[in-house]
Write a structure and sequence with these properties.
The complex is a heterodimer of chains A (223) and B (313). Chain A has 223 residues and is of the alpha/beta class. Chain A has eight helices and seven strands. In chain B, helix 4 runs parallel beside helix 6 (144-167). The chains are: A alpha/beta (223), B mainly alpha (313).
Chain lengths: 223, 313
């Protein structure tokens, strides 16, 4: 790491993170579930960059982080809801030190910047994982994107936003379920997008690219 | 030097011969690749995947029946998972699918325990009755029959049928002095896979008349006939080394594996065509998914198993 990089006090603990991913996450994602990845070569190797993914399951973050080698983990920073992941001391430790999340304050007061942590991660040259749907929502359904992703792009016009569509994780472990049922998961990586001058146009372009990836997969609806 | 109880000299020699044949195929593929890297890409991937599959299978066989049974249970797991990921399933049945997965360790437990009576009815009777009853508890009636039917078809193919390959290890080894415990399994798997390769090669060389044009237009009568003939010859040649089969019985086994393998292959082709995919997955580079590799075995294993048991056990 270069000496100009700033670090944070409660960022990922590399050893705990590498152990957890090597012993738990990888066997779970690669053996119990199994991935079909399309367009892996399009993933950004270094930051600052943003992975924009659909979100149906807690597995999503584990799947996206499994696309990278262990040594790259500490540079991957999932943006995660502070009200959910920091609600107890142990969960907060796990979320910050093992998963390396940057907390996002959902429904923050006026004036406060909910994306401050995400911006700091980009400033440190890290790869941010962002779920612009804002919540896991209905399994295997794409919801409208919230405005944060476009605001982030506006403030970082040089940063590439890589759309990634995940299918299957919402079947394996949907919101509100504790029992994991194995399914192969498909991951489709699209061409990156940069700030195009308008928040609305950016958000719509990103949504369109995500829908195109979903259509490319041709997945039957899950109902 | 004495061998562990589950292995005999012919089994080891057969494995050595497979490695030699694979080395030869690799050399031929490397030559083609040197001339035409793009055109030989698929072939090269396929040969590389064969090395991995042969290595994993060989290690499982060498480690003994327990390891082989666990390995085949894992193959069933991958195949069932691929199938359930491919077909449209209902949201209401998520937990039912979990029960279907649980059938795998149970079914292979009967194999390890050599409890034949239970092994042969557990999925066709008990799972057949249990899963729809569990689906009723979920309460969704729309698409009920389709969901129950597709689920049971998947369990029968990927778990019940494949577990017959494993049960060959549970047959009393006294029945097979030449091949020991592992001989019949090696014979079945080797012939089934070679049959696939032979049908493909004969089809490429001479193929003209399609057999099932609407399901699998590239499967030809010439490929089928050449493949089955090759398999029958190998079946007769290998039988004294690996099995208790007399030459005429081995001829029948070769026919059964050759024709059964073909039927399994085109049956999965029909399923894939119905769903609208080309390969069942991407787990095995150059081959497709696990189902693409074990489709022939889902027919060949139970047919061969009952044939051998009827004749010799």
């Amino acid at each position: 790491m270069s000496s100009t990089c700033t670090t944070e006090a409660d960022g990922p603990a590399p050893l705990a993170q590498a152990l957890f991913f090597a012993l738990v996450v990888r066997p779970l994602v690669l053996v119990v579930l199994g991935l079909n990845v399309r367009g892996r070569e399009r993933l950004p190797r270094r930051g600052p960059a943003v992975l924009v993914a659909n979100h149906n399951s807690h597995l999503d973050t584990l799947i996206l982080m499994s696309l990278y080698p262990l040594r790259a983990l500490r540079r991957l920073r999932p943006a995660a809801a502070a009200d959910y992941f920091l609600r107890t001391r142990w969960l907060a430790w796990f979320a910050r030190r093992v998963m390396g999340i940057v907390p996002v304050a959902r429904g923050a007061a006026r004036g406060a910047d909910p994306l401050a942590g995400a911006e700091a991660a980009l400033a440190r040259g890290e790869i941010l994982i962002l779920y612009p749907e804002g919540t896991r929502g209905e399994p295997e359904r794409l919801a409208r994107f919230k405005g944060g992703v476009a605001r982030l792009a506006e403030r970082h016009p040089q940063v590439p936003f890589h759309p990634v569509y995940i299918h299957g994780a919402g079947k394996a472990l949907p919101k509100g379920e504790a029992l994991l049922v194995p399914f192969f998961c498909d991951v489709l990586v699209g061409e990156p997008l940069r700030w195009n001058g308008s928040r609305r146009a950016f958000r719509e372009a990103l949504e369109a690219r995500m829908r195109a990836l979903a259509a490319e997969g041709g997945f039957p609806p899950w109902e | 030097m004495s061998l562990p109880a589950h292995l005999t000299a012919p089994v080891l020699w057969t494995m050595a011969a497979v490695l030699a044949a694979l080395a030869l195929a690799t050399a031929l593929a490397a030559r083609r690749r040197a001339r035409d890297p793009e055109g030989a890409r698929e072939l090269w991937l396929r040969v590389r995947s064969w090395w991995v599959m042969v290595a994993v299978f060989a290690v499982a066989v060498l480690l003994g029946p327990r390891a082989s049974i666990v390995f085949l249970a894992f193959v069933s797991y991958l195949a069932l998972k691929e199938y359930l990921s491919l077909i449209p399933t209902r949201r209401a049945d998520r937990r039912v699918l979990f029960w279907a997965y649980l059938a795998i360790p149970v079914q292979y437990w009967w194999v390890a325990d050599a409890w034949y009576g239970m092994f042969v009815i557990f999925i066709p009777v008990y799972m057949f009755l249990l899963l729809p009853a569990r689906m009723v508890l979920a309460g969704e009636t729309r698409g009920f029959l389709r969901a129950a039917g597709t689920l049971h078809w998947g369990l029968m193919s990927t778990v019940f049928a494949l577990s017959h390959a494993a049960y060959l290890l549970a047959l009393p080894p006294e029945g097979n002095p030449a091949g020991g415990r592992a001989g019949l399994l090696l014979y079945l798997v080797l012939l089934t896979e070679l049959n696939d390769v032979a049908q493909y090669v004969w089809g490429r060389l001479l193929g003209r008349r399609p057999v099932v044009p609407r399901v699998s237009p590239r499967k030809t009568l010439e490929g089928l006939a050449g493949g089955v003939a090759t398999t029958v010859v190998l079946a007769v040649l290998l039988a004294p080394w690996l099995t208790p089969l007399a030459p005429l019985e081995a001829l029948g086994a070769g026919l059964l594996i050759g024709l059964g393998g073909f039927a399994g292959d085109v049956t999965l082709s029909a399923v894939k065509r119905d769903i609208g995919v080309k390969d069942s997955g991407t787990l095995i580079p150059g081959h497709g998914g696990v189902l693409d590799r074990v489709d022939s075995l889902t027919y060949a294993a139970p047919l061969f198993f009952h044939y051998v048991v009827y004749l010799h056990y």
